[in-house]
Q: What sequence folds into this?
């Protein structure tokens, strides 16, 4: 019954997630050279760099998705969470197939993952704000 308070907590959780994801992205970018030196063979440097940047840029969105997943679990909005995950999964799989046919590379996998996680973020946020469908947190 305290929807306004819950929405305020959800907003704060999402802002903290974005801040944490941004911090993680900046940290990963700063340590790219060290990770590359320690873990990547020299012949794979170019492929690694592109994939690394795509993965780093996605960190704030990943963190936001984890926050909205938790909000939906807490609101017991399981059916929406399942359905939105399936739609995002199908779109991500289709984009992976398209990217693989177009430019087969590690970067293609990360671009498909970026699309998948971005869709999950859109679905997660739109269920909370403005509250698509029968959203449990939508204002009456």
A:
């Amino acid at each position: 019954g305290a929807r306004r308070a819950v929405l305020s907590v959800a907003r704060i959780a999402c802002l903290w997630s974005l801040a944490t994801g941004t911090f993680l992205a900046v940290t990963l970018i700063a340590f790219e050279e060290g990770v590359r030196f320690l873990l990547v063979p020299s012949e794979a440097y170019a492929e690694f760099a592109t994939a690394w940047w795509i993965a780093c840029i996605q960190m704030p969105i990943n963190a936001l998705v984890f926050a909205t997943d938790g909000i939906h679990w807490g609101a017991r909005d399981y059916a929406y969470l399942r359905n939105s995950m399936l739609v995002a999964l199908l779109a991500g799989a289709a984009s992976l197939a398209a990217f693989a046919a177009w430019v087969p590379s590690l970067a293609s996998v990360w671009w498909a993952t970026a699309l998948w996680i971005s869709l999950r973020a859109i679905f997660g946020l739109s269920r909370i704000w403005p509250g698509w469908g029968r959203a449990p947190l939508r204002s009456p």
Q: What stands out?
A: The mean pLDDT is 93. Residues 6 and 12 are 10 Å apart (CA to CA).
